[in-house]
Amino acid sequence: MISTAKRHELTLLAAGQPWLPVLLLAGQAAKPLRKVPRLGWFVGDPLVARQIYNDATHFSIVSEGAVGHWWAQVIGDWVDDLFEGPGHNALRAKSRDLFAAKYTDALVQRVMGPALKEISNDLAAGKTVDIAERARVLVGRSVSDLVGMEPGDIAGIFGLPGTDDPDEPFRVLFDHVEELVNLGLGTMASTALDPDAVARARTLARQLATSVPAAYERADTDTTLGRCRELGLELEHASGLAILMAVAGTDTLASAMTRMVALLHDSDGHRGLLAAPERTPDAVRETLRVTSPAYLVGRSVTAPVEIAGRRLVPGDHVKILTWSINNAVGDFDIHRDYIPATRQLWFGGGRHLCLGAQLVHSELTALLEALTVTGRPWEIVERRYRRKVFIPTYQVLKIRLS
Ligand code: HEM
After folding, report:
1. What is the rounded distance in angstroms from the CA atom of residue 234 to the CA atom of residue 227?
2. pLDDT, tens digit, 9 for 90 and up, residues 131-166
């Protein structure tokens, strides 16, 4: 029988994109890989997924069908070098320590600390807190650091009227990035964007990068762009990386945060966690496994290759079904130990392994600590799923302490 937690997860996926749960559940049968007419190869096996991630000779992230192709249309062909050429090697080498745990923990305390404290205080005072709304603000705060925008910059760039609400600029920044991410809707068969979408995406990306040059010049070394400068990244790379980080780490992170709170409640894991706080890293890992916000990762074949007995030819599209692979292991369970087969496939693999993985861990851990500090479990008083979004999530998730 399907668990309550799983039922909510599948309904949430369907609200985002109606065909998504069908595809992702059917994808669990795509083992090791299966060809679907017009769409390409679907991969439902962790070993084959890792083999593809590690094979830069036959698989590309910048050809049609993969995310780099989408990006090249938005910010220019130089992205090819940022993603795949020698520029990518240099970028990864220089940014190796950009998100070391010591730095990400400090970043989270600096940009989110007071907002997290407010959540703890509100819950302790018996108030109802909308975690979905809070997650958008928390992530907006995190993104403002990645792109070097102060609240005043956000108000100026996006024409925000004067407001007394200190969270409003961060909501606006979140919505801005989400609009850019949602332009990815409908790119399942092809990553070629129509001219209107390209024009809109370029405007959104340009606005997002507005503050980067000044922040790169002047920002303190405890900010992300200040660190990029110190680590020797050139301005052009820091600028491209800032947009990339914002887009990669906005909806995915807010989705993981909100769904984590719902999953813990729906599986009764919150009570288990309160009894055994040392299980926090397991709760975070299980959240990422079960939600797998980057549910599908694309690659294109650039040279003939045989994988698991199948012959793939140049031009073929490959879709690694991250969600399907990770969820084949079983339901959300904070008592589940590390699974060697899936490792951390929710963050991809090989040379493009998520750059923000440590930041994600620090942010999810900090949110969990803010929720459990009172020592009491929570109940959900209202939930609504967000409709028509590239990365499915909750629109509303109101909780209060039991
Ligand atoms: C739960 C949240 C997140 C998930 C599930 C996630 C997942 C992923 C995945 C699957 C990839 C590989 C894509 C591919 O191979 O085509 C990736 C790449 C990337 N992620 Fe994340 N990500 C998350 C949050 C973040 C955050 C917060 C940042 C910002 C610091 C970030 C920055 C990046 C960057 C820059 C890349 C590209 C790396 C490269 O091409 O070398 N991500 N992410």
Report:
1. 12
2. 999 999 999 999 999 999 999 999 999 988 878 899
The answer, yes or no, to whether any atom of ligand 1 lies below 6 A from the CB of 62, is no
Query: Ligand 1 centre and the CA of 242: distance in Å?
Result: 12
Side-chain half-sphere exposure of 132, counting CA atoms within 13 A:
17
Place of tokens 């919150």: 270
Tokens representing 206?
Answer: 């340009």
CB distance 294 to ligand 1 below 6 Å: yes
Each residue's pLDDT tens digit, 169-201:
999 999 999 999 999 888 888 889 999 999 999
Domains identified in the chain and CATH numbers:
59-295+355-401 (1.10.630.10)
Angstrom distances, CA of residue 240 to CA of 150, 203, 349: 19, 14, 21
Question: Cis peptide before 32, with omega less than 30 degrees from 0?
Answer: yes
Q: Order of strands across the sheet with 378-385?
A: 129-130, 394-401, 378-385
Relative to the CA of 345, which ligand 1 atom is closest?
10
Cα within 13 Å of Cα(280), Cβ side: 16
Residues 6 or more apart in contact with residue 77 via CB below 8 angstroms = none
Q: Output the CA 256–ligand 1 centroid distance in Å.
A: 13
59 lines ligand 1 (CB under 6 A): no
**88 CA from centroid of ligand 1 (Å):** 14
Q: In which residue are the tokens 């660190």 written? A: 227
Question: Of all protein residues, whose CA lies closest to atom 39 belonging to ligand 1?
Answer: 352
Least reliable range by pLDDT among 11-15, 84-88, 102-106, 200-204: 84-88
